């Protein structure tokens, strides 16, 4: 589990295809201070397991399913990626619950400078729109962000200067793809309500059946 608060930006040193999967070695510094084999690290919002590490980099493997559902398959040596270690129970919880399980890939439609920060608009896959609400949380490339505006499948977020300067967002261009993870609470609620989606509505009795 992660918070969506990126700790540092790493750089891909090795990027090799392994069948349908991918082997990555990433240069880092800060997160290596207490890293161990088997630890989880979110790489652009994708939860992967550390297989080995040195004093200046670490290596992970991504299976074919992960590569096909994220932007990892388009990465190459020299690319920068957002990095976050799994959260600790004793730590402050500053973002929102992020699993590192990417739900889909969005396209960047617009990047606008709005002092003091930036305004980013992306187009979501249609099947993810129902999980997003204004002022709710969304994860883009591992960043916990608040939805500022929704227009159909287009969602906008405001980026403060610190987030812009300390993550890979500053290098993004219109037309590029970005990993999306919607709020897990929204996914659970949607799942709970599925048996009732074809009914005329939810009565108090039906809500009681759901445990509300």
In words, what does this structure look like?
The longest helix is centred in the C-terminal third of the chain and has 10 residues. The chain has 2 domains: 78 residues, Elongation Factor Tu (Ef-tu), domain 3; 87 residues, Elongation Factor Tu (Ef-tu), domain 3, CATH 2.40.30. With 212 residues, the protein is mainly beta.
Nutshell version of this structure?
With 212 residues, this protein is mainly beta. Helices cover 13% and strands 40% of the residues.
Descriptive keywords:
Elongation Factor Tu (Ef-tu), domain 3; 4 helices; globular; six-stranded antiparallel barrel; 212 residues; mainly beta; six-stranded antiparallel beta barrel
Helix coverage percent = 10-25%
How many beta-strand elements? 12
Largest sheet: 6 strands, antiparallel, barrel
Distance N terminus to C terminus?
26 Å
Mean pLDDT: 92
Secondary structure layout:
Blueprint: E1 8-18, E2 21-27, E3 40-43, E4 46-53, E5 57-62, H1 64-69, E6 80-85, E7 104-114, E8 117-123, E9 137-140, E10 143-151, E11 154-159, H2 161-166, E12 177-182, H3 184-193, H4 204-209
